[in-house]
Design goal:
By secondary structure, the chain is of the alpha/beta class. It contains 7 helices and 5 strands. Helices cover 47% and strands 14% of the residues. α3 runs parallel beside α5.
């Protein structure tokens, strides 16, 4: 029995599945998709509600004690909601990626793109959205253009707080993630 390759989803409440059972959150739905294909990957959900890029940087070393094959980075939304300077967010996320690569040189990287609502001003919103494609390009990572595509602005797909996807929302997020992650896993299986 070949041991499963590890996919680590590292993120905030979106990854953790805030307000839902863990098995309803998109990482578990991705695992179900993998299992249905008979592929040998094991998903670990390291989502933590309220996590910022700075918090993630403090937490990452502890999670790197075990080897990982695929690293999905989903952080930054809480930075944006707090109006943290995008330069700082970008620097923190870059350091997280570098630590992951230092421990796992052959790791496949996936970056989840995030956008902020326009109420923080056009300049901030643009600078924030630009973090993720830049990070992906610099680190040769696959990019999920916008994690909450088709979900973020749809009240029916979110919990009453308007910030976190509901069960149906997570199903759509899982599809969005799979569009980018599926080909990455396909490549690793060769």
């Amino acid at each position: 029995e070949v041991s499963s390759r590890v996919i680590l989803f590292f993120g905030d409440s979106l990854t953790a599945g805030y307000g839902l059972d863990r098995e309803q959150a998109f990482p578990a739905l991705v695992q179900a998709r993998i299992d249905s294909l008979g592929w040998n990957f094991e998903v670990f959900n390291a989502g933590l509600g309220g996590e910022t890029s700075a918090g993630g940087l403090r937490r990452i070393d502890w999670l790197l004690r075990r080897p990982i094959d695929v690293f999905v980075l989903e952080l930054g939304a809480n930075d944006g909601l707090r109006g943290i300077d995008p330069k700082d967010t970008h620097a923190n996320l870059q350091q997280i990626v570098e630590r992951v690569k230092a421990k796992n040189p052959a790791v496949a990287l996936v970056i989840a793109g995030m956008q902020m609502p326009p109420n923080l001003g056009a300049e901030y919103t643009e600078a924030f959205a630009a973090i993720f494609p830049a990070l992906a390009e610099k680190n040769d990572a696959a990019l999920i253009p916008f994690l909450l595509e088709g979900v973020g602005d749809q009240p029916a797909l979110n919990l009453p707080d308007g910030n976190h996807p509901n069960v149906e929302g997570h199903q759509i997020v899982a599809e969005t993630v799979w569009t980018t992650l599926g080909p990455v896993l396909e490549e690793l299986r060769r």
